[in-house]
Design brief:
two-stranded antiparallel ribbon, alpha+beta, binds glutamine
C-alpha cells in the first residue's frame, strides 16, 4: 500500500477510535469512585465553614437549621451520588424560578419570555424595584429576566390556566416531574412569606402598572410565593438539575419533562442571572449555569455531564449559599464540569 491509500485509512481508523472512545466514556469521564470521592472531599473541606447567615427577611427561614449540608449529583445515566445530609428539606425559593420560566417557554414558546420579560442581567439585587423602573418600555424596553423577582412574578402570571388551582397545578406538577416525585409545599414557609411579602406585592403591582403582567397581579404574586415554598432535599434538586443536564429528560424516571430544544435557552438565562448580581463572578469561576435560592440551595448544570445540587442555608451578601458555592465549584473542578474548558479538536 502506498502513502495515498494508507493515509485515509489512518484517518478513518482514528475517527472510529475517537467515536468509540467518546461513546464509551461515562458522562463525566470519571469513574463512580472518583465522582463519589469528589463529593466526599467537598463535604469534608467545607463542612466547618461558618461564614454567612440564614435569610431572615422571611421569618420561617431564620428558623431553619444552619448546619444542614448535603451534596447530590445526578448523571445522565441516572446514577445518583450523595454526601452529607440529603434528606433534610428546605424551601426551594428562587430555584423555582427556573422551572416556572421553563413551563412558560414550553407553553408559549421561547420568544415569549424574551419579548415580555427580557433575558438580560439587571446587575441589581434579586428583589430590586429600581431595575423595574429601568425596564419600562418607554426607557428602551425590558432589561430584566425571569430569575429576579419582577421577572419571575411576571413569568408566573404567564402560566396558562383558567383558575388559580389550574395554574398552580401546572407549576407544581412540572416541578414534581423534574424532581421525579410528587413535591409538596411547606405551609409554614408559605404562610410566613405570604404575611411578609409586601415588597413582592408591590413589585407585582408595578409590573402590572407597566404592562408586563396582563392580569391578576395579586394572584401571580401569591402563586409565586407558594412555588417558592415547595419543599425539596438535595437529591430532589440534583435530579431537577440532572434533567436539565440530560436534554430535558429526567435521568432517574426516564420521563421527557421538557423539549430538548428548549433547554439551552433555560441554561442561558441561568448563566446570565442565576446567582443574581454575582452571576458573572460565578460563571467566571465555574462556567456552570446555576440557580440559587434563599432557602440555601443551589443547583448547577454541566450539560451532558451532570446536574449537581447543594443545600446549606447560610447565605452571603448577594443571597447565595456560601458552602453550596464552594462545594459545587470544588466538585465540578474535580470532574471537569466547566463547559468552557479547553476542548482539543482539529489539527494542532
Ligand atoms: N421567595 C423569595 C423572595 O421572593 C425568593 C428569593 C430568593 O430565593 N432569592 O424574596
Amino acid at each position: 500500500m502506498n502513502f495515498r491509500t494508507i493515509q485515509p485509512m489512518r484517518y478513518a481508523l482514528a475517527a472510529v477510535a475517537a467515536m468509540l472512545f467518546c461513546t464509551a466514556l461515562p458522562a463525566a469521564a470519571q469513574s463512580p469512585k472518583q465522582i463519589q470521592a469528589a463529593l466526599d472531599s467537598a463535604l469534608t473541606r467545607f463542612k466547618n465553614v461558618r461564614e454567612g447567615a440564614n435569610a431572615d427577611y422571611i421569618p420561617a427561614l431564620a428558623r431553619v437549621d444552619p448546619n444542614i449540608f448535603g451534596i447530590a449529583l445526578v448523571t445522565p445515566n441516572g446514577k445518583v451520588y450523595t454526601a452529607g445530609d440529603v434528606t433534610s428539606q428546605v424551601s426551594i425559593q428562587s430555584i423555582s424560578k427556573v422551572f416556572t420560566m421553563a413551563r412558560v417557554i414550553e407553553d408559549l414558546g421561547p420568544n415569549s419570555i424574551v419579548e415580555r420579560i427580557g433575558v438580560d442581567a439587571t446587575g441589581m439585587r434579586f428583589n430590586s424595584i429600581v431595575s423595574v423602573e429601568f425596564s419600562q418600555k418607554a426607557l428602551g424596553g425590558p432589561e430584566i429576566n425571569p430569575l429576579v423577582n419582577a421577572g419571575a412574578i411576571t413569568a408566573t402570571s404567564m402560566v396558562p390556566g383558567a383558575t388559580r388551582d389550574e395554574v398552580w397545578k401546572r407549576i407544581l406538577d412540572f416541578h414534581s416531574d423534574f424532581a421525579g416525585r410528587p413535591l409538596t409545599v411547606d405551609k409554614e414557609v408559605f404562610d410566613s412569606e405570604a404575611a411578609t411579602n409586601q415588597r413582592n406585592q408591590a413589585i407585582g403591582s408595578l409590573m402590572y402598572a407597566y404592562g408586563f403582567i396582563k392580569d391578576k397581579p395579586a394572584q401571580a404574586t401569591d402563586i409565586y410565593t407558594e412555588q417558592c415554598a415547595i419543599s425539596v432535599n438535595a437529591r430532589d434538586l440534583a435530579t431537577m438539575a440532572g434533567t436539565l443536564a440530560n436534554a430535558g429528560r429526567n435521568p432517574v424516571t426516564g420521563k421527557q419533562v421538557m423539549k430538548a430544544q428548549n433547554v439551552p435557552g433555560v441554561l442561558a438565562v441561568m448563566a446570565t442571572a442565576g446567582l443574581y448580581d454575582d452571576s458573572g463572578k460565578w460563571l467566571y469561576r465555574t462556567g456552570l449555569p446555576a440557580k440559587s435560592g434563599v432557602g440555601g440551595g443551589i443547583i448547577a448544570v454541566s450539560p451532558g455531564k451532570f446536574g449537581i445540587a447543594v443545600i446549606a442555608p447560610p447565605l452571603d451578601a448577594a443571597g447565595n449559599s456560601v458552602k453550596a458555592q464552594l462545594a459545587i465549584e470544588s466538585v465540578s473542578n474535580a470532574l471537569g464540569g466547566n463547559p468552557y474548558a479547553p476542548q482539543v479538536s482539529g489539527k494542532r
